[in-house]
């Protein structure tokens, strides 16, 4: 049986950074669309003007592009069902709100903020849940029209059923039954003529022919309202999929901004832009977050194309998932090892250039095999490979003194290494490693002592990729110059 192509959407509000939960929602929507030969749409829900953050929309689009989640329709590329910013669709919402009023499913509300606050306070005193008391629910339409014509400010509220129950079906959770007495006549059109989410999202999903709505479980509270709006219009209901929430690493409570700030101190984040800046790969990030809420083995390493092949909405789970940053490290490092040398070189080069290093492409390609296995994040390349592109290195003098030796003995070792290596026509590891090991045998010093001094002299650091392979890449003249510099530093320490 063939699967009907799905039209899915990612519909963020430009009120802050693109976060991990949003990235996963976008991923699942993308996977379903691609799996079924459908379309993935980006829609910007920007009707909450007070909370809109300048630059947030651009960051969202850049984040999706970085993740490789290319959308088929969106604000910057257009499409057959645009515009794709809700603030550009004002007339569409007003027309649909008017339709609901005419059909008796909505009504103008003239209650002032002061009146509403007074009602809320009275309800609070009675220990009742705050809700609209229905003051304007039964105003005669002719009277309402007269007040509107006189310029009285008003909103439009949706008229929820007063009796019975609302049964809303979620694909992951089954039927969700709500007593209609618990529902509220929510505002669907504000005094400024802009819609609230409740109307705008349902209208847009219908107009854009969205078949599957993937969104966070925080919308379950208004889920009955939304299906009632869809039913009031007489539209076909899309498939609703309310995704699981992310818990903080302890597994207790949702991830908050405070925990996010703490994570940054350890080199992690829940924001996509931060993850990019911290050296994580889009492949690693998507693999990691995609498995949180997806009923496949949590250690499965997959590219996005492989995810498309395996994805079904039936395999998603409603259970919350605790964020595990160590898993992120695992997936990121694994994907780094899967990249081709050429691909990894292209990804690492910006990190070196950002440090002001003059990167030679041939050197970069040669050193990749030496550092690949050591990388957890892309920016780890600086710690393990910056010395390849420096004209000179400046070791910490104390690091040049081998354990158990003094500066004089360490200088003696450095001088002898200079002599041995200087006698070689080149520093290929096959040519220079044997005589250095022979020196270790005859000198009575340990390999750790001799090679440790040589490593610090050549690389400037105590930990590095394989020494002799690194020296081969750096080159004979530069290595000898660095060893000579180390000899001078050790002799100064003797004095």
Topology:
Blueprint: E1 7-10, H1 20-36, E2 39-42, H2 56-67, H3 90-102, E3 106-109, H4 113-125, H5 141-149, E4 155-158, E5 165-170, E6 174-179, E7 187-189, H6 197-207, E8 212-216, H7 223-233, E9 239-243, E10 246-247, H8 257-265, H9 272-277, H10 282-290, H11 304-310, E11 321-322, H12 325-338, H13 341-354, H14 361-371, H15 380-385, H16 407-422, H17 429-443, H18 447-459, H19 467-474, H20 476-494
Parallel strand pairs: 1-2, 8-9, 10-11
Antiparallel strand pairs: 3-4, 4-7, 5-6
Give an overview of the whole structure.
The protein has a 3-stranded antiparallel β-sheet. It has helices spanning 20-36, 56-67, 90-102, 113-125, 141-149, 197-207, 223-233, 257-265, 272-277, 282-290, 304-310, 325-338, 341-354, 361-371, 380-385, 407-422, 429-443, 447-459, 467-474, 476-494, and strands spanning 7-10, 39-42, 106-109, 155-158, 165-170, 174-179, 187-189, 212-216, 239-243, 246-247, 321-322. By secondary structure, the chain is mainly α. It folds into 4 domains: 89-243, Rossmann fold, CATH 3.40.50.620; 257-338, Glutamyl-tRNA Synthetase, domain 2 (Orthogonal Bundle), CATH 1.10.1160; 341-383, Orthogonal Bundle (Helicase, Ruva Protein, domain 3); 397-494, Arc Repressor Mutant, subunit A. The longest helix has 19 residues, at 476-494. Helix 10 (282-290) packs across helix 12 (325-338), helix 16 runs antiparallel to helix 20 and helix 17 crosses helix 19. It contains 20 helices and 11 strands.
């Amino acid at each position: 049986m063939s699967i009907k192509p799905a039209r899915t959407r990612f519909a963020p509000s430009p009120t802050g950074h693109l976060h991990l939960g949003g990235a996963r929602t976008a991923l699942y929507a993308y996977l379903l669309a691609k799996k079924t030969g459908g379309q993935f749409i980006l829609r910007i829900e920007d009707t909450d003007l007070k909370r809109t953050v300048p630059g947030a929309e651009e960051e969202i689009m850049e984040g999706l592009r970085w993740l490789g989640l290319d959308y088929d329709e969106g604000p910057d590329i257009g499409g057959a069902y645009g515009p794709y910013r809700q603030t550009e669709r004002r007339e569409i919402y007003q027309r649909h709100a008017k339709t609901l009023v005419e059909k008796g499913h909505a009504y103008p509300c003239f209650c002032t903020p002061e009146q509403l606050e007074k009602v809320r306070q009275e309800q609070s005193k009675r220990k009742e849940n705050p809700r609209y008391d229905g003051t304007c629910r039964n105003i005669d339409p002719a009277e309402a029209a007269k007040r509107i014509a006189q310029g009285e400010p008003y909103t439009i509220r949706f008229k929820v059923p007063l009796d019975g129950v609302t049964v809303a079906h979620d694909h992951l959770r089954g039927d969700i039954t709500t007593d209609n007495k618990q529902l509220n006549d929510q505002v669907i059109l504000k005094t400024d003529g802009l819609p609230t989410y409740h109307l705008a999202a349902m209208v847009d999903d219908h107009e854009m022919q969205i078949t599957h709505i993937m969104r966070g479980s925080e919308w379950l509270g208004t889920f009955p309202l939304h299906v009632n709006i869809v039913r009031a219009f007489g539209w076909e209901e899309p498939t609703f999929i309310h995704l699981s929430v992310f818990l903080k690493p302890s597994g207790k409570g949702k991830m908050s901004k405070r925990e996010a700030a703490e994570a940054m101190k350890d080199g992690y984040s829940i924001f996509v832009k931060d993850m990019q800046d911290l050296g994580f790969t889009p492949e690693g990030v998507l693999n990691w977050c995609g498995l949180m809420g997806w009923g496949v083995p949590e250690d499965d390493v997959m590219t996005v194309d492989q995810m498309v092949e395996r994805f079904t909405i039936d395999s998603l789970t409603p259970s919350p998932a605790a964020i595990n940053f160590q898993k992120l490290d695992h997936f990121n490092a694994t994907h780094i090892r899967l990249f081709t040398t050429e691909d990894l070189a292209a990804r690492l080069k910006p990190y070196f250039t950002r440090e002001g290093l003059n990167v030679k492409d041939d050197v970069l390609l040669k050193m990749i095999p030496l550092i690949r296995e050591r990388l957890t994040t892309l920016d780890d390349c600086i710690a393990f490979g910056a010395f390849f592109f420096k004209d000179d290195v400046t070791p910490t003098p104390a690091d040049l003194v081998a354990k158990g030796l003094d500066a004089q003995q360490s200088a003696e070792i450095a001088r002898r290494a200079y002599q041995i290596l200087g006698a070689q026509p080149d520093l290929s590891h096959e040519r220079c490693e044997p005589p250095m090991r022979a020196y270790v045998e005859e000198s009575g010093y340990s390999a750790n002592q001799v090679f440790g001094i040589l490593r610090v002299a050549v690389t400037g650091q105590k930990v590095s990729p394989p020494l002799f392979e690194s020296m081969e890449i750096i080159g004979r003249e530069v290595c000898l110059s660095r060893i000579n510099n180390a000899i001078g530093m050790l002799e100064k320490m003797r004095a």
